[in-house]
Amino acid sequence: MVKHIIPETLSEALKYLYQGDFQIIAGGTDLMVQNRSWSETPVNFTKNMLYCFDLLELKGINVIDGRVEIGAMTTLETIMNHPGVPSLLCQAIGEMASPAIRHVATLAGNIGNASPAGDSLPVLILYDAWVELRNMAGFRMILLKDLIVGPRKTAMHPEEMIVKIVIPIHNFDFESYIKVGGRKADAIAKVSFAGAVEIEDDKIADIRLTFGAVGKTVIRNETAEGAWIGMTITELKTGIWRLIDMYNQLIQPIDDQRSNKYYRKTVAINLMKDFIDRL
Amino acid sequence: MAIIKFTLNHKQVIVNGDPNRRLLDVIRNDFNLKGLKEGCGEGECGACAVLINHQIVNSCLYVLANAEGKDIITIEGFAETKRFAVIKSAFETAGAVQCGFCTPGMIIATESLLNANPHPSEAEIKIGLSGNLCRCTGYNMIVEAVQIAMKAGEGLW
Ligand SMILES: Cc1cc2nc3c(=O)[nH]c(=O)nc-3n(C[C@H](O)[C@H](O)[C@H](O)COP(=O)(O)OP(=O)(O)OC[C@H]3O[C@@H](n4cnc5c(N)ncnc54)[C@H](O)[C@@H]3O)c2cc1C
Ligand code: FES
Ligand code: FES
What we know:
With 279 residues, chain A is α+β, with helices and mostly antiparallel strands. Chain A has helices at 10-19, 31-34, 76-80, 87-94, 99-102, 107-113, 121-126, 144-147, 222-226, 233-238, 240-250, 261-277, and strands spanning 4-5, 22-25, 48-51, 61-64, 67-71, 130-135, 138-143, 148-150, 153-154, 161-168, 174-180, 191-200, 203-212.
């Protein structure tokens, strides 16, 4: 028999996780669909479930010391409407699902689900977001890009849970997020792109480019980005073919029913090219 | 088994049962409130919408365990309000109801939107209704209905 536990505190939740074999459920918008059963019957969860959505300790947003900390059970709509949350994240969330889903779904759930098409991931990885994981013994911080290791695979241990997402605040001079999907509100991304550039003394001081839904995980390559630091925007624009070459090699989309890989790759490269053209 | 307490249409209720039931089934079967419908059963259509703490939510994706302590209003409860009367007459005026299957969800979406933003632009109305599908009207009449309700109900939201 599958067990169902509704813990009242975080430490109680962590105790159950330590006992093993529990799955965390937050808003449930992924898990309810993945474990869907016949109408009028309970959802067919196959693991022991730990219902954490109402853990108050994990709700809320704090802006402190140049970073934004988002509690794991904060809903997407709350995050999107918070003035301290970086703009690209608000924009990416605004294009996820519909209000009815966003009132329930969480950022931790989007991360925990680790879908190659998870729409918050390209933007969070662009911002160098960290995830705070906790277990009974303590906590550790891990960069989101190191937490997600493959499609639906994370580096989280079974007795750990996400308690916070921590985003360093960084003031870029140019930022852009674009998602190409089908029906806007409910479309799972076919391709998405996020870009940001910071200029100092007319030179590129920081450039970050991420691509979603075109590989097993988000594509970001710090070596390719680093090649442009110290150059001017004009140099970047005249060198765009070299940039395109770099990403043509880095982007290796997987085929699925949503769109074929040549289409995805072409769109991804074009989105980046548009971003550079508009700088 | 678990005991889950919440308010449903302003009444305190207690459900004793599997916490992994869908809120949709609990409301339709245990409380015999059939205004919300099951369309897709996976969050795409909005026919099953309810208000939880004044915000639209799809009850087909909402697990009973998460209902603890919430304030839940269905179309039957909302139908008792002045706001509903305004929205209903706006939907009639705009011809926004054909077969009616999507209508309870559309009305819940309208209330959720106007409650958060009493003066939405056309683009904001479209976002507000974006989780609700209608196979009949082609949506323009529904957008118009929201605009009529917004004006006629000035001060109510
Ligand atoms: C109609 C519809 C449209 C959608 N549109 C989009 C879209 O446009 N873009 C997009 O990216 N997604 C979309 N989704 C998917 C989903 O809504 C998101 O992934 C959402 O962020 C999941 O959050 P949740 O709280 O509901 O997760 P849940 O379903 O509760 O959990 C998802 C996973 O995360 C794990 N998890 C949750 N919280 C934690 C935690 N604190 N610590 C560790 N693990 C945890 C769970 O164990 C589970 O594996 C859509 C879903 C639906 C039904
Ligand atoms: S039945 Fe719930 S959204 Fe379609
Ligand atoms: S009126 Fe028929 S589905 Fe909307």
